[in-house]
Amino acid sequence: MTVSFCGLQLAHRVINGSGTFDAIAARSVFGPALEQEFPFAAYVSKTITLEPREGNPPPRLWEAPGGLINSIGLPNKGLDAYLAEDLPRLAALTRADGAGGVADRPWPPSAPVPVITNVMGSSAEEFSRLVEACAARAEIAALELNVSCPNVATGLDIGAAPATLEDVVRATRARTGKPLIVKLTPNTADVAACAQAAEAGGADAVSLINTLRAMALAPGLEARPWLGGGTGGLSGPAVRAVALAQVAAVAAEVEIPVVGMGGVQSAAHARALIDVGATLVAVGTENFCDPLAGARIARGLAQTAPGSQSPS
Ligand code: FUM
């Protein structure tokens, strides 16, 4: 049974969270086996910006109880190099053609899977330039707007301000007919208002939650932040209950589909997000523990009935 999402026919409901699964590196580690059972029904790229970025100074990671704090800072080679170098490799890897999925393929899934390119700008103008360039590429099936990165100076300026968010989404909407997914921040008092703003601006879907802003102190007596960026974003099991509440709140207030994520480690966790209204579920931090988590969770999900989630 396939899943319809923003006009794409996907083999199942499980995708990856942006920046948590490097498909090009995974292909070189796992070889062709990766393509025989690609773990995700669509592949979400890491965040791409207009210009190359080095990312935040190290240290960039801190293991917290039940989770991970990252202060990565969106390192990437920039739009032009992504389109010239990485996108062709991703498209070949997953054989995505932008036509939208694998409707005629039997489960379990195999390539091709659609590529969703995640982009981040610091203004409507920057987002629009990114979206327009991606709109011209047939290998890209959909776009995800990262308006929720807590690790860069302007990361939350757009995503946590509903009126600004609506304007930015409206501006990018005008530049593409491809599906637009808006990735929302949990670092706001009213996530449903942000989701409604994205919908009003013309988003085809919203995804949530991105990481929760968090901090760790360096071991020792000095009260000095451990992370080079000062603060970071918390993900993993520690945020699962927050994600469930926010996905439920958003799904109740918007008509567009919701991609739920946050601490998903098992099919039961994925089922819980679907039960509160998510159409798709993204696996993030768990990919670092188990690179085949997406396939495991998709397989388990196919065997679980609605309402059969375990306590978080
Ligand atoms: O690279 C990063 O710091 C990613 C952050 C995010 O969007 O959550």
Task: Outline the structure in words.
With 312 residues, this protein is of the alpha/beta class. It has one domain (3-302): TIM Barrel (Alpha-Beta Barrel), CATH 3.20.20. Helix content is 31%, strand content 19%. It has helices at residues 23-30, 33-36, 79-94, 124-135, 162-173, 191-201, 240-251, 267-275, 286-289, 293-302, and strands at residues 3-5, 8-10, 14-16, 43-48, 61-64, 67-70, 115-119, 140-146, 180-183, 205-208, 212-214, 232-235, 258-261, 280-283. The strands form three sheets. The protein has an eight-stranded parallel β-sheet. A four-stranded antiparallel β-sheet has the order 5-6-12-11, with no helix packed on it. Strand 9 (180-183), helix 6 and strand 10 (205-208) form a beta-alpha-beta unit. Helix 5 (162-173) runs parallel beside helix 6 and helix 8 (267-275) crosses helix 10 (293-302). It is globular and about 55 Å long. The two termini are 27 Å apart. 52% of the residues are buried. Residues 95-111 have low confidence and may be disordered. Fumaric acid is lined by residues 19, 47, 70, 72-74, 146, 149, 151, 210-211, 233.
Q: Note the run of SSEs as H and E.
A: EEEHHEEEHEHEHEHEEEHEHEHH
- CATH architecture title: Alpha-Beta Barrel
For the record, give the distance between the C-alpha atoms at the N and C termini, rounded to a whole number.
27 Å
The CATH topology label is: TIM Barrel
Biggest β-sheet strands, sense, barrel: 8 strands, parallel
Corresponding CATH superfamily: Aldolase class I
Number of distinct helices = 10
Counted up, domains total 1
Q: Can you tell me the residue ranges where pLDDT is under 50 for at least 5 consecutive residues?
A: 95-111
- The average pLDDT score comes to 91
The percent of residues in helical segments reads 25-40%
**Which distinct ligands sit in these coordinates?**
fumaric acid
Count the beta strands.
Answer: 14
- What is the overall shape? globular
Oligomeric state of the chains in view: single chain
Structural class: alpha/beta
CATH class: Alpha Beta
Proportion in β-strands: 15-25%
